[in-house]
Design brief:
Oligomer: single chain
Number of helices: 14
Number of domains: 2
Number of strands: 21
Bound molecules: pyridoxal-5'-phosphate
Structural class: alpha/beta
Strand content: 15-25%
């Protein structure tokens, strides 16, 4: 996303054009940015450890066009449910190109997992006997809880440690692998996912070391061979204006250094290093275009838009911050007449005139249209003065955005568009009243 004069563009297509063609609220993704994110991560890690594979965390954005785009780049799929597996298969993934990492699975999940031919990653040893009722996997992995995790977003995004519902405590990992070996399984993987949105390279180094210190002695004592070691996703992106991006070069170097040292120390060989990012690949490539519909001067000033808590759940769910940019095309001509040429306006109070003079921002709270006070999802933000009809653009909405949206209050799900250079493509149409009622039974008797 960038500004040309006061207009917001995604690649070479303006927010105004997209809003006119598809309406608002509208999820917009930049294909180029997704490719860049993938290639940067892939290239950087492969430089340090060539046997490296990215499994894309489908949960972070499961639009088939996005999943397919990443598969075309070389991503395999990390799936959390049978439906995500079905989606990956529909798009052409098979066998080891799918890793099934569910948690608290039922027998139907386990049966379908085995039948799908995906790599199975069990969240607990208690699932092993139940899985074996349906077949013996060629390769089996367990999710390990290394006893510490981290998240820059929210404590509920910390996925390891004593409070976490995920994985096998690392001290008990050996029992799990011993049991699987006894059951006749010959090939193994190991997995952890300790937290989401972390931007400190040292953290990734520390969890990798901890996992390998658990895996190494186990491989030796049980005489088992590991096909892959999956250190999870969690690579963070900056959401706040002053947040620093993750230094991926430093991260890859640190992770691979410790990986090389430890695999050598424990004789683990040229094992495949796996990561399963979601946010890092798609987070900053997604945006929501919304329109200002109502402005209220109450005890404070509220700007009502069609982007609400059901369009983007993260602010209400995690207290998450999303930058807001303002497209002032409607009123730009007016501003030009008053001398405010070449305006640049962002959600961070960075508002400059053509002469470099800052324009006084206004403090407002941005709200959606849901009947919940929590729907005032961007509080007391300094933004250029907004008028009815203006477009806002919510940043960093590519991960855990649309896929977490829901049709509360009959405010139905947004459309999604993929912009690729000079072209834009509708990749999910806007939900309709009929879609909302899809699956409803016995409507006649309800009347
Ligand atoms: C098992 C697993 N893998 C990968 C991810 C992707 O995490 P992120 O988007 O932080 O990279 C998640 C996120 O919840 C997860 O639960």
């Amino acid at each position: 996303m960038h500004y040309k004069n006061s207009q917001i563009y995604f690649d070479s297509i303006s927010a105004q054009e997209l809003a006119k063609e598809y309406g608002t609220p509208l999820y917009v993704y930049e294909a180029g940015r997704i490719r860049e994110n993938f290639q940067r991560l892939d290239r950087t890690f492969k430089k340090h450890w060539p046997r490296f594979q990215i499994y894309y965390a489908v949960k972070s954005n499961s639009n088939p066009a996005i999943v397919k785009l990443l598969m075309q780049e070389g991503a395999f799929c990390d799936c959390a449910s049978l439906n995500e597996i079905l989606l990956a298969k529909k798009l052409g993934a098979k066998g080891k190109a799918i890793l099934f990492s569910g948690n608290y699975l039922n027998d139907d999940d386990l049966k379908a997992g085995i039948e799908s031919g995906a790599f199975i990653n069990l969240d607990d040893v208690s699932l092993l006997d139940r899985l074996l009722k349906f077949g013996k996997p060629d390769v089996l992995s367990f999710r390990i809880n290394p006893d510490f995790g981290k998240s820059n977003v929210h404590e509920s995004d910390v996925m390891a440690g004593k409070q976490a519902k995920f994985g096998i405590p690392w001290e008990r990992a050996k029992e799990a692998y011993a049991k699987a070996k006894e059951a006749g399984i010959k090939k193994f993987g190991v997995h952890m996912m300790t937290g989401s949105c972390v931007t400190e390279p040292e953290y990734f180094e520390a969890i990798t070391k901890k996992l390998l210190d658990c895996v190494g002695p186990m491989a030796h004592d049980l005489h088992i061979k590991f096909e892959f070691i999956d250190i999870g996703g969690g690579f963070g992106i900056p959401y706040l204006p002053d947040e620093k991006p993750l230094d991926i070069e430093k991260t890859a170097e640190k992770v691979c250094d410790v990986f090389r040292k430890k695999t050598k120390e424990f004789g683990l060989g040229d094992v495949q290093l796996v990561v399963e990012p979601g946010r890092y690949l798609v987070g900053d490539a997604g945006f929501i275009i919304g329109r200002v519909h109502a402005i209220k001067e109450s005890y404070k000033k509220f700007v009502g838009t069609d982007v609400g808590m059901s369009t983007l759940a993260r602010p209400v769910l995690y207290g998450a911050y999303h930058g807001i940019s303002v497209d002032k095309t409607r009123s730009f001509d007016k501003l030009r007449m008053t001398g405010f040429d070449k305006l640049r306006m962002t959600g961070h109070g960075d508002i400059k005139t053509g002469h470099g003079e800052p324009v006084e921002p206004e403090k407002v709270t941005i709200t959606g249209q849901a009947c919940e006070n929590a729907d005032a999802w961007a509080k007391d933000r300094e933004l250029p003065k907004l008028e009815i009809g203006d477009l806002i653009v919510v940043e960093n909405a590519g991960a855990y955005g649309f896929c977490m949206s829901y049709p509360y209050n009959g405010r139905l799900r947004a459309a999604e568009v993929l912009v690729d250079g000079k072209t834009d493509k509708l990749i999910r149409r806007r939900e309709t009243f009929e879609d909302w009622l899809l699956g409803v039974e016995n409507l006649d008797t309800a009347r």
